[in-house]
Specification:
The complex is a heterotrimer of chains A (about 325), B (about 350) and C (about 375).
Chain A lengths: L38 H10 L2 H23 L30 H37 L1 H16 L2 H12 L3 H28 L2 H8 L4 H38 L10 H8 L8 H28 L9
Helix pairs in contact in A: 1-10, 2-3, 2-10, 3-4, 3-6, 3-8, 3-9, 3-10, 4-6, 5-6, 5-8, 6-8, 7-8, 8-9, 8-10, 9-10
Chain B lengths: L17 E15 L7 E16 L3 E5 L6 H8 L7 E6 L2 E2 L5 H7 L3 E4 L13 H11 L7 H11 L16 H13 L5 E5 L7 H18 L2 E6 L2 H7 L2 E6 L2 E7 H6 L4 H9 L5 H5 L27 H5 L3 H9 L5 E2 L5 E2 L11
Parallel strand pairs in B: 3-8, 3-9, 6-7, 7-8
Antiparallel strand pairs in B: 1-2, 1-4, 4-5, 9-10, 11-12
Chain C lengths: L2 H7 L14 E14 L2 E14 L3 E5 L6 H9 L7 E8 L2 E2 L5 H7 L4 E4 L3 H4 L6 H12 L4 H14 L5 H4 L9 H13 L5 E5 L7 H18 L2 E6 L2 H7 L2 E6 L2 E7 H6 L4 H9 L38 H5 L5 E2 L6 E2 L12 H4 L7 H14 L1
Parallel strand pairs in C: 3-8, 3-9, 6-7, 7-8
Antiparallel strand pairs in C: 1-2, 1-4, 4-5, 9-10, 10-12, 11-12
Helix pairs in contact in C: 5-6, 5-8, 6-8, 8-9
Classes of the chains: A mainly alpha (about 325), B alpha/beta (about 350), C alpha/beta (about 375).
Chain lengths: ~325, ~350, ~375
């Protein structure tokens, strides 16, 4: 997708845009009284005006920074045993410690890192594979479409948790293997979405125009279909991150996900379940992080969807 | 500047060779049942046995109401839709039988401008890229394509400085000009114009029509001009073919066809167009057509227009009507000076 | 009880008395409509005044975005809540702007009815057309269902639908576009309104069907004696139907007069350009005289006449002060142009030029493309 190279500066959000500037002839410009904006700028403006999504984005960025930068700087390393066993939250150990004396703050930060890594990898992998699969099926249609979509359908019929648990049990342990297992089951959802988008795009006149100019199929897919489908796919990928976090949590909780000595948010919750009545901090802090991350990502997805929707009414109230 | 003299109506291109000819084009669209096994349950007769010739440097107007098959015909000519049967000859070759690779080369010579300027431009591409796209596809951009795109934009009346803007920032008329610039980039010989001004306001439409006129005169283009608007077609076309329900019912030089229409449908069409002149408009004789277009999935036998034909309903005797029901009227000269597909063609003066 | 009785006796107490032809039934003055947007206020209508006399047909023409449709939606009180409406709309002396929704509902349909471009938006797909027309009759008259259905059949006959009795039980999707629009016209005249507002009633239809619909509309108007506001971009339709014509540009009327005034002696360059842009069926082809440029954006408008950048007659004054509608040669013929006197006796070709292509750029392009090939 070509980068928009607009020359006019965009006014700050909320400020009255444009104004009637004199045109080159010295005469008042009447045709373009609204400042020049690329689609990207339009989308960005609408997203910036979506309060909930903006707050969520800030919270999420802070969480990521905390997990990676905070985790590296914190005085206790993850997996490090301290002499303080089963301590409630204090200045020394903000999230308390477990029965083995590990600092729960360091554990949660490490768990957040792993959970996020898994989620992002799932989103990337499933989106790329699913988009290509769905776009090809939707664009060519006919027998190709039927065959490819039956494969997707087959994967969609598999009981996700059970299969993931089985695969995770056999190959699991490492975080990226878990991610591949989840992605391997989730790309089929993405392919459905991508196919739907491409099917509606395929009928557009600009695709016919491209064919009339002599474009090859590959060129049409890469240069016209994918950039136009990108909006819907990005929104979908965001939602996928949230879904992957929850799924990884479920798998780790069941014991088929990340295994000790490494940790993830799901595993932390799972380990804390026996201690719920005696040391509740072990359970609540990782739980809170899971909810916070999933919620933020869902709101950001909402904001993106609204911003990318051309039918969206202009004034948000 | 000198406005190029555009010869109209009198067969200004007479004696010229046909650059493109369509022979017995037929297009059937299958109607499928819904459900798991999508059986074919019927056929839409979109285009039936349509033949015409486009002469070098002329404008052939293809006119008719929605559902008459004019846009389908335009796409058949470009092989954007595969014809069920029939041939299209361009440069001695049958366009419908070309391999994908040969077809791609052909695209340089045959181009199309679409109706809807809002849908025919990729919303994610800046205007420069849209106009450069044909050059890139045919590997011609690197040899001075940038300059060419700038000149093209200026030619169609856009400022090259606006080339970085995206289609949504332009008005309908400007977008249609972008569409024209894109179609011209490869220097085609034939331009298919599929309702190029129908989506535009009148004051804008006139600008695009004049632009097309000037481009034709300067670049020696041949136009296949598809439209539902008789006034526009009368203005631009040298020759006109009137379509009804997939068939050409009358064809001839523009002035001739409007002065002496022979087919009852052409007559009804001409008399239905309101004239922007209060005195003339209020004093006109009207030939009204009753009812609506029959379904193209089940067209009437014989003459397809008979179900709505005022002549069939009011003037013909029972015996005369039989012929309309049983025989398909051929498109031949019947004393009107141009071919008419009506058994009982009779010229009328309507304007 | 016959249909005539329904109409004669059905009008509730307190309704206005019969109209004398000279009385204005609808008076619009200083009407403005704005829509807030992220780029500022979109001034869709910037001051419209007109009065509609009983039985008269007022044609409103203008290009897309000129505010012609928004004006009538504002008259009917049908704009979304975000719209900022000011000014006055009086139906027989009663102010409609600021009226409660319940009161407006009594006026809509009974006194003023509206016909939209797309009949599918005004018909309910799940009810038969007979039911829908009968409902419209019963909404404002307390008559039995059977009497209302009889009236519905009469109405369908009036708008020239063949076999009206059978068509009553048809559903909208079973009818063609033209047929549906006639059903909408039947509903619009069901309560014998005083004003019918038709917003692009034939735009979505083919020309032969358009001619049929215009005939139905004329029949409906003759039958009810209603005044009509006919909104369209088709100058031909206006020429054939309208008694008076109002030309709108950028949210304001720029010319008002009888059809003959506007078509034969236009006094505003925009109207001139519009007429010169039309390809004509009735005369041999000549060069069209398009209006250069594009319609102005109605956001953040600079002062002065909005037509200035496209106007061949523009002078510095035009950029400073927007002209008001003022009487021209005839008292009933108003135009908003500082230089309207200079259009006397001119034709569009005298004012506008025909050239559009940049010949120098074209020559460059020809050269370069030949090198490329």
């Amino acid at each position: 997708m070509p980068e928009p190279t607009t020359t006019t500066t965009t006014p700050a959000p909320g400020a009255p845009a444009g104004g009637a500037q004199p045109g080159p002839s010295g005469r008042a410009e009447r045709e373009f009284t609204v400042a020049e904006r690329s689609q990207f700028q339009l989308v960005l403006r609408r997203f910036l005006q979506h309060r909930l999504a903006m707050v969520s984005l800030v919270v999420l960025v802070l969480l990521v920074l905390l997990a990676y930068v905070g985790g590296a700087l914190w005085k206790y390393k993850f997996g490090e045993y301290t002499p303080d066993e089963s301590e409630p939250p204090s200045w020394e150990h903000p999230f308390g410690t477990d029965s083995a004396g590990r600092d729960q703050f360091a554990q949660v930060l490490r768990g957040t890192q792993i959970s996020l890594q898994i989620a992002v990898l799932v989103a990337l992998f499933a989106t790329v594979v699913g988009t290509i699969w769905g776009a090809v099926a939707g664009y060519f249609g006919g027998l190709v479409d039927t065959l490819m979509m039956r494969v997707s359908d087959l994967i969609l019929t598999l009981p996700l948790i059970a299969v993931a648990a089985m695969l995770g049990h056999n190959f699991g342990g490492t975080w990226w293997l878990i991610a591949l297992v989840i992605a391997g089951l989730y790309w089929a959802y993405v392919s459905r979405v991508a196919r739907g988008v491409v099917l509606s795009l395929r009928e557009k006149e600009f695709i016919e125009a491209a064919r009339a100019l002599g474009s090859s199929d590959v060129r049409i897919i890469l240069r016209h279909l994918v950039p136009n489908a990108l909006g819907a796919i990005i929104v979908n990928a965001t939602i996928l991150i949230a879904v992957a976090i929850l799924l990884e949590t479920a798998l780790s909780y069941l014991g088929f996900g990340v295994t000790a000595p490494d940790t993830s948010l799901g595993l932390l919750v799972s380990e804390a379940q026996t201690a719920l009545s005696t040391r509740p901090w072990l359970f609540y802090f990782p739980g809170l992080f899971i909810i916070l991350i999933a919620l933020c990502i869902n709101f950001i997805g909402d904001g993106l969807r609204d911003a990318l929707d051309p039918q969206q009414t202009k004034v948000r109230r | 500047m000198s406005a190029p003299a555009v010869s109209k109506g009198g067969g200004g291109a007479s004696g010229a060779e046909p650059i493109l000819s369509a022979r017995n084009l037929v297009k059937h669209f299958p109607v499928r049942s819904t459900g798991l096994i999508r059986r074919q349950v019927g056929v839409i007769h979109a285009v039936c046995d349509v033949s015409f010739e486009l002469l070098e440097g002329e404008t052939l107007g293809l006119v008719g109401e929605s559902g008459c098959g004019k846009s389908t015909t335009a796409r058949l000519v470009l092989n954007l839709i595969k014809a069920t049967s029939g041939e299209v000859f361009y440069g001695g070759k049958d366009v419908t039988a070309l391999s994908p690779k040969q077809l791609r080369t052909l695209r340089r010579d045959l181009q199309i401008v679409f109706q809807d300027p809002y849908a025919s431009l990729d919303p994610r591409m800046p205007v420069n890229e849209i106009v450069a796209e044909p050059l890139r596809i045919h590997d011609m951009y690197d040899k001075g394509g940038r300059e060419l795109v700038r000149d093209l934009l200026r030619t169609v009346g856009l400022k090259p400085e606006h080339g970085n803007r995206f289609p949504h920032e332009f008005s309908g008329g400007q977008r249609q000009r972008i569409g024209v610039a894109r179609a011209l980039a490869l220097r085609p010989k034939v331009l298919v114009l599929d309702e190029p001004v129908s989506a535009l306001d009148v004051s804008i439409q006139a600008g695009v029509l004049n632009l097309l006129d000037e481009l034709q005169a300067e670049l020696g283009l041949s136009y296949l001009f598809v439209s539902h608007d008789l006034s526009v077609v009368r203005h631009t076309a040298d020759r006109i073919a009137v379509m009804y329900l997939g068939r050409i019912v009358e064809t001839g030089p523009a002035a001739d066809l409007f002065e002496r229409p022979g087919h009852p449908y052409t007559q009804a069409l001409i008399s239905a167009i309101p004239l922007p002149d209060p005195r003339k408009e209020r004093a006109r004789e009207r030939i009204t057509v009753v009812g609506d277009l029959p379904s193209p999935a089940d067209p009437p036998s014989g003459c397809r227009f008979r179900t709505r034909c005022p002549k069939f309903a009011a003037e013909l005797t029972e015996d005369e009507r039989r012929r309309c029901v049983d025989d398909i009227p051929e498109l031949v000269g019947r004393g009107q000076g141009h071919p008419v597909a009506c058994h009982y063609a009779e010229q009328k003066v309507l304007i | 009880m016959t249909a005539e009785d329904v109409l004669a006796g059905g009008r509730p107490e307190g309704a206005a008395e019969p109209v004398r032809p000279s009385d204005p039934v609808l008076e619009v003055s200083g009407l403005t409509v704005g829509f807030p947007s992220e780029d500022g206020m979109v001034q869709a209508v910037r001051g419209v005044d007109y009065s509609l006399r009983g039985g008269e047909v007022l044609g409103i023409v203008g290009e897309s975005g000129s505010g012609k449709s928004v004006t009538s939606l504002a008259v009917m009180g049908l704009l979304p809540r975000t719209a900022k409406v000011s000014g006055s709309v009086r139906f027989r002396g009663r102010e409609l702007i600021g009226m409660s929704e319940a009161e407006l509902n009594k006026v809509r349909g009974r006194d003023i009815s509206m016909i939209f471009q797309d009949p599918m938006t005004s018909l309910n797909p799940v009810y038969s057309v007979g039911y829908q027309i009968a409902e419209a009759v019963r909404a404002h008259h307390g008559v039995s269902k059977a009497a209302a259905l009889d009236r519905a059949a009469d109405l369908l006959e009036l708008v020239r639908i063949p076999n009206p009795g059978q068509r009553l039980s048809a559903y909208p999707h079973e009818l063609s576009g033209g047929m549906r629009q006639r059903v909408v016209i039947a509903i619009a005249m069901a309560n014998d309104p005083d004003v019918i507002i038709a917003d692009e009633p034939t735009t979505a239809l083919d020309v032969t069907v358009q001619a049929q619909i215009m005939q139905s509309l004329q029949a409906a108007q003759a039958e009810t004696g209603a005044a009509m506001v006919l909104i369209t971009h088709d100058l031909g339709v206006i020429a054939g139907q309208a008694d008076r014509v109002l030309v709108m540009y950028a949210g304001k009327p720029v010319e008002i007069g009888t059809a003959e005034d506007v078509f034969y002696t236009a006094r505003m360059p925009y109207t001139f350009g519009l007429l010169g842009s039309l390809p004509r069926l009735d005369r041999p082809s000549e060069r069209l005289t398009p209006i250069p440029g594009s319609p102005p954006s109605v956001v953040n408008m600079p002062p002065g006449c909005p037509f200035t950048p496209r106007c061949p007659l523009a002078i510095p004054l035009c950029d400073e002060r927007e002209p008001e509608l003022e009487p021209t040669t005839d008292a009933g013929h108003l135009a908003a142009c500082h230089r309207s006197d200079e259009l006397v006796g001119k034709s569009p070709g005298d004012v506008f030029t025909t050239g559009v292509a940049d010949t120098e750029a074209l020559a460059h392009f020809v050269e370069e493309s030949e090198e490329l090939a």
